[in-house]
Fold this protein.
Amino acid sequence: MFTEILVPEIMDSMLPRDFPFEKLSQPQYKVKVEKDVFIEMRDGVHVAVDVYRPDAPGRFPVLYASSPYQKDLYYLPACPTFHMRETNKIEWFVERGYVYINHDIRGTGRSVEGQWRWHSMAERLDHYDVIEWAAAQPWSNGKVGMIGESYYAWTQWMAASLAPPHLACIAPFDGGADMYRDVAYHGGILASGFPANWHLTEIRGHYHVGRKGEAPQQGEWDLAWNVIKHQTYDEFWEERNPDFSKIKCPVFSIGILHKVGLHLRGNLRGYEEVTTPKKLMLCHGDFEGDEVAIFESVQVRNLLLRWYDHWLKGNDTGFMEEPPVNIFVRGRERYRLENEWPLARTQYTKLYLSGAKSGAVVSLNDGSLSWEAPVVENASVTYSYPDPDWTGFSGVGTAVMEKGILNPCKKILTFTTPPFERDTEIIGNIVLVLYASTDQTDTEFLCRLWDQLPDERQVPGMPPAGRILTRGWLKASHAATKDPALSKPYRPYYRHDKPVPLEPGKVYRFEIEVWGTSACLLKGHRLRLDLANGDSNALDFGGHYYGLKVGSDTIYFDRDRPSHLILPVIPE
C-alpha cells in the first residue's frame, strides 16, 4: 500500500459533498431482541434466528442476514481478527426503523437440525422460506431486503436467484457468486487456500474451540473432500452457481478491488448481467481485513441506508437518479461516478510481450511490454519448473525468501513497461492472450499485474515496490471448452467441464481471463506482468501451490505469435 494514501480522505470521497443525510431514516427507536426464534422449513427442518425489532408498535421493513458463523457470536467486535463478524452493526439499522433477522444456516449455530452443505439447494430454499416467513409477520411491512458481507453476500445472490416474492432488494457486499470460478477453481486451477482452509478454521474450527452454539452434525459433510472430488464443472457446481437472469429484485453490488480470487468477479458479473434496477460500487482497499473496516464505516452504512430506504420504505432520496456506478480509481485515490460498467468510452488496447530487457526488475528474463506489435521472428522464452529456489508448503511458493524478505518475481517470468509518460487509466476487465507450448500434456498459467512505483523510489537490492492490481488464471487443458455464448471480448468464459490434454511441443493460443480492476498508472510508474505456473500463499489469497508439476513451458512473442494483454484504457 502506498504510504501517501490518506485513508480519511478516501472515505470522505466515497460520499458526494451534497449527500442527503437529512433525508435518510433517523435514529428514533430502542431495540428489542427475540433470541432463538425457530422457523419450520418446507422439509420440516427448524432453523434458528434472532429477531431485532424497534421497541414500538407498527410494521417495519426487514433486513435479513444469513450465514454459518453463529449468530450468538455477534458480541464479538467487527474487526479483521473476527473476520466472520460480517453483519454490520445491527442496532444501527434497527434504531432507524428496520427489523433485522440474523439467521444460523441449517446445521450450524443454534440451527441444530439438518446439515450444512455450502450453498446446497436445501440451504437456498431455506433463505426463500425465511424471507417469506418474515414478510408475513405482524411487525413486518411485507418488504424484505438482504444485508451482509462475504458469506452473507453469497447467500444474497443464491436467495435472489430463486426470486422470493417478498424479496424487495439485495446489497451483496464483497460477494462472489459462481462457487467454482469465483472461489474454488480459478481458471480451472484449485485454490488450495480457499475454501479448504476456510472450512477448517472458520467453520469447523470455531465450533469446537470455545464454541457458543451446539451443532451436532456440523462437520460431517466435508467441503474439502467435495471440492477435490469435483475438479471440473458438474452438477455439484451447477447447484452452487446462481442464475443472474432469474434475479427479479433491485441489486446494489459492492465489490472490493483487492478481493481478486474470492469475491470481486461475482460483484462485477452480477452487476453486468442482472436486468433489474441496479447500482455498482467498487471500493478501495489493499490488504485482507481492509474490507471489514470499509463495510463497518459510517459512509457505507449511510449508502446502504439510502438504498434500503428507497426500496423498503419508499423514501425517495434521489439515489436512483444519480449515475449508477461509483468506482474508486487507484493511483488517483478518489471515488468517481460513472454511467455504466464496463465504461462506454473504454479503448481496448493491446500491450505486447517482448524479449527486450526492461531494466526494471530482477527476474528470470526481465522482459518488457510494448504498445508496438512485434516484428521479429522466432522470439520466445522458456522456463523450467519447479525452480530449485521455489518452496512448497512454507507459503513462499514461486516467490523466494532472501534474508527474511519475500521477493515475488526473482525466479519467475516478468514483462514490464517503460515508465508511463502520462497518467493512464486502466479500468475494466482484462484479457491476457498467450501463445505458449509445453513439453507436458497440461500446464497452468498464473499471472499478476502490478503498478510498480517509479524507478527513483525503488531501493537497490530490494524487491520492486508497488501494488498488485489484479490476477488471472487458466489451466491449459480447460481452454478447449470455451463457451462462445457466454464469452465477451473482455472476458473469455470456459465451461471447465471436459479438459483436453495438450500435445507436447505444439503452440497454442490461450485467452486468460484477468479479473477487472480500476487504476490510474501515474506518470513515471510502470505496469508489470508476472507470469508462472504457480504462485505464493504470501501473495495470493487463493494460496495456489504449484502441485506435482515438472516440465518446461515456452512463451512466444514474435510477429506470428504476438502474446499480448488487452487493456481497458480510458482516454483522457
